[in-house]
Design a protein that fits this description.
Elements: E1 3-8, E2 11-17, H1 20-45, H2 48-52, H3 54-91, H4 105-110, E3 113-115, E4 126-130, H5 141-147, H6 160-168, H7 215-219, E5 222-224, E6 227-228, H8 253-258, E7 266-270, H9 276-282, E8 287-292, H10 299-305, E9 309-312, E10 326-331, H11 341-354, E11 355-368, H12 371-383, E12 387-397, E13 405-414
Parallel strand pairs: 7-8, 7-10, 8-9, 10-11
Antiparallel strand pairs: 1-2, 2-4, 3-4, 5-6, 11-13, 12-13
Helix pairs in contact: 1-3
GO cellular component, one term: membrane
Transmembrane segments: 20-44
Keywords: Coiled coil, Glycoprotein, Membrane, Methyltransferase, Signal-anchor, Transferase, Transmembrane, Transmembrane helix
């Protein structure tokens, strides 16, 4: 009776649930309604004349009561169906219209319900399951259907850029596919830890859908405030980051780690560029997961080639980690999700969720476009009650022209113990 929607990461797994308690309540309600109506019918249909001829009216009354009971049951069933449909609409699932023309058959097959192999689960009451797919996929059904059009057991289309477009539109998680992804020979990979600072070959990554076709081209581009020449591991500033400061906003990694309590073993890097933060932490026996998207560059493959762990997801995706599991979370300007202030609030609450009590939140050179943005971020952080171990607001020259400067905020904050 009814249904329940269970969130898994930023995806939604849907289950139909038959609750023993809810079933008992419904049966009791049905019994009460029928009993009440039977008494009412008896009161209205009985009379002194009927008492004189009880046998004559018995069959007529029984027939009339049966019709009324059947009508009541049909009304109850109709109401239950309407309530179930309203619940589905409110929860927002099953909103993808698979009856639309040109909908890929694989998409229809993937979204079909599947009965649990051992029947209803005795503890949860779950009887069947629907594969998870992002709620916002309903707004991009044409693109989603294009993504799910392929030859089963054949080679997947070279459409990673299409997949990323869907992810950035909120269609996350994407449905699984039954095809073989294009493989690029990884010849010339270095063993760990030598791989951390060895240049990555142009031949071991995929350049399809990208403007640049080699790392030399990428190093001549500014891909973001946190990625200027960030694929050049031999020259430039990338191999000095976190160990040599260029200004007061640049914290040294050993100084930050010394502020931690209880040891630092695991970390999460948000908007980590080419993975240099994770590389520096790996040198100190700290395992860091880097959140990536391939925006104008093969970032995920580059991070992986360095022997590091990339996770391919957008910042609108709920982090696929359990609560209180990381000792440190590092975020730079990638923390700036733009839009309404509530968007940043959702992100900050998820960061707080995965960071353990006593863990460190390292805000590294966050770009403040204006004074109001700086104040808004400061007020938001203060709401969490973090202890400020380091807090620096400084200016840097603006590349847009001489005499101009940009304001950056850096800080190391410690999550409090909450009861």
């Amino acid at each position: 009776m009814g249904s329940v929607s269970l969130k898994i990461g930023d995806g939604t797994a849907r289950f139909r649930r038959a609750s023993l308690c809810s079933s008992a309540v419904n049966v009791l309600m049905l019994f009460s309604v029928i009993t009440t109506n039977l008494f009412a019918l008896y009161a209205f249909t009985s009379s002194p004349k009927d008492q004189a001829h009880p046998t004559q009216h018995t069959h007529k009354n029984i027939s009339f009561i049966s019709e009324q009971v059947s009508l009541i049951i049909r009304e109850i069933e109709s109401s239950q169906k309407k309530l179930a449909q309203m619940e589905k609409e409110l929860l927002g699932y099953e909103s993808i219209d698979l009856s639309r023309p040109n909908t890929a058959s694989e998409l229809k097959l993937f979204l079909q319900r599947h009965q649990l192999p051992l029947g209803k689960d005795s503890k949860t009451g779950i009887t069947e399951m629907v594969a998870s797919v992002g709620h916002s996929c309903d707004k991009s059904v044409d693109l989603l259907s294009q993504y799910m059009t392929y030859k089963v057991s054949g080679a997947c289309p070279d459409d990673w850029s299409l997949a990323q477009r869907l992810i950035l539109r909120g269609c996350e998680p994407l449905p699984r596919r039954r095809c073989f992804a294009k493989s690029v020979p990884k010849v010339g990979l270095y063993s760990f830890p030598i791989s951390l600072w060895k240049p990555v070959s142009d031949k071991i990554v995929s350049w399809s859908g990208l403007g640049c076709k080699n790392f030399e081209c990428l190093n001549n581009k500014k891909l973001g405030k946190d990625c200027v020449g960030c694929f050049d591991l031999a020259n430039g500033y990338e191999n000095q980051r976190f160990v040599k400061a260029r200004g007061k906003n640049d914290f040294l990694i050993d100084d930050v780690l010394a502020l931690g309590s209880g040891g630092t073993r695991t970390g999460f890097d948000i908007g980590g560029g080419s993975g240099t933060f994770a590389a520096r932490m790996a040198e100190r026996n700290v395992t860091v997961i880097t959140a990536t998207l391939n925006v104008d560059a093969p970032i995920s493959e580059f991070v992986s080639a360095r022997g590091l762990f990339p996770v391919y997801l957008s910042l609108d995706h709920r982090f696929p980690f359990y609560d209180n599991v990381f000792d440190i979370v590092h975020a730079a300007s990638g923390l700036d999700v733009g839009g309404r202030p509530e968007k940043l609030e959702f992100l900050m609450f998820d960061i707080d969720r995965i960071l353990r009590a006593g863990g460190l939140f390292w805000l590294d050179n966050f770009y403040c476009a204006n004074e109001e943005k700086k104040k808004a971020l400061t007020r938001l952080i203060e709401r969490f009650g973090y202890r400020k171990l380091k807090w620096v607001v400084g200016e840097k020259p603006d590349a847009a022209g001489p005499g101009k400067s940009e304001v950056y905020l850096s800080g190391v904050l410690q999550k409090p113990v909450r009861v």
